[in-house]
Prior knowledge:
Elements: H1 2-13, E1 18-21, E2 30-33, H2 43-56, E3 58-61, H3 71-78, H4 88-91, H5 98-105, H6 109-115, E4 147-148, E5 167-171, H7 202-209, E6 217-221, H8 222-227, H9 231-237, E7 241-244, E8 253-256, E9 258-260, E10 267-269, E11 285-286, H10 291-305, E12 311-314, E13 321-325, E14 329-332, E15 338-339
Parallel strand pairs: 2-3
Antiparallel strand pairs: 1-2, 3-13, 4-15, 5-13, 6-12, 6-14, 7-8, 7-11, 9-10
Helix pairs in contact: 1-2, 7-10
Fe (ii) ion binds near residues 155, 157 and 331.
Amino acid sequence: MGTQVLTQLREAFGSAVEVEPLVNETKMGRRVLGVDLSGPLDVDQAAAMIAAVDAWQVVCFPGQDARGMTVVDLERLANHFGAPIPHPSNVDGYRGDDPQIKGSLERTSTLVAAAFPGVVSPLSGAESLAVYNVTNLIGSGPTATPVVSGGQHWHTDIEFEPVPLSTSMFLVDHVPLTRDDGVSWVTNPPREPGFYHPDSPALLAERREALPLNGETAYTDTAAAYDALPEAERAYLDHVQVRRRLRKEDPGFLMPLVYVNPRTGRKSLHSPVWASRGKRVAPAQIEGMTPDESRVFLDMLEQHCLAPEFRYDHAHTRGDVTVWSNFATLHVAHRRRSRSTIRPMLG
Length: 347
Ligand SMILES: [Fe+2]
C-alpha cells in the first residue's frame, strides 16, 4: 500500500515528493517531503493526503513555514478530512453569548501572549473555534517560574461525539531547541493520588507513566495492536460496542470498538481507553458489562496498545504540519501544569 500512496502523492504533488519513515518501514509514521500545503488542494491532492493518513496513520509534512502556511491554511486543509468542529476546550463554559466564548478563547492564546509579551503571540487565525492552541507555556513568563502544561491521559481526540473526530493536525510554531538540551527539557513530576483507578494493573500504570519528553507527542498504533491479537480475540472485539459520553449525566451512545477504515478495510481499535479524560469525561462503558467489568476490559486493551512495539514518540520541528488518524492511534503529551526550573521553550 505504501508504494501506491507514494505514486499517488507524486502524481498529485509532483515527482519531487519523497517519503521517509519516522521509525522504520514496518511501523506507522512517515515524513513526506516536497508537498506544499499552504494553498488550496485539488481533488487528487486531497485524495492523496487522505490516502497517506490511511496508510501511515501519523504523517508529517515539514517545511510548511517556509511556504507561508498559516492557521487559516491549516483549517482549510482540515476541511478535506471532514468538517472541522469547535474544540471543547474552546467553548467550555459557553452559555450562548459571544463574550463568554471570547473569554474562553483567551485562556490559551491570550494567556501565552501575556506571559511572554513581545516574545510569543498567537498565530493569525488561531482564534478559530476549531483551532486549539497547544502550548506548555500557559501562565509562564521570562521573569516568573514557568508553569508547564501538556497532555494527561493517552486518548484519541473527541471520541465522545456521535461523529468522532477522524483526524487531528498540528501546525508547529515553537519547539524546544533539541531533544538533548538539558535546559529545555523537563521530567514528569509524581502523579497526584487518585488520578487513575487504584486497581489498574501495575504494567499498565508503568506504561501510562512513561510519558514523552516535554514538547513531544507520543503515539501508539492501534491498528498494529489489533493485528497482533489472536484471531479469536479479534473476532470477539469486532462485535464489541462502547457507550461513550462527554458528561457523566449524558446518556451517551454506542460506537463499535473496532473501526473499519471504509477506504482500506483495515481494522483498528478506536480509543480503547477507559479513563481518557480523568474527571473531565465519564468513563467509557462496554455494552453488556458492568462499569467495573468495563474498566478491567479496557485497561487490558490499553495495556496492550501501550506496549513499546506499537509506540512512537514524535519530536516536532518548527514548520511541520503533522496529521494523524484518531481511529488508528492513541496519543499523549507530557504532564500538565508541573512547576519546573526550565526556561521557556523558544525555537
Ligand atoms: Fe489530543
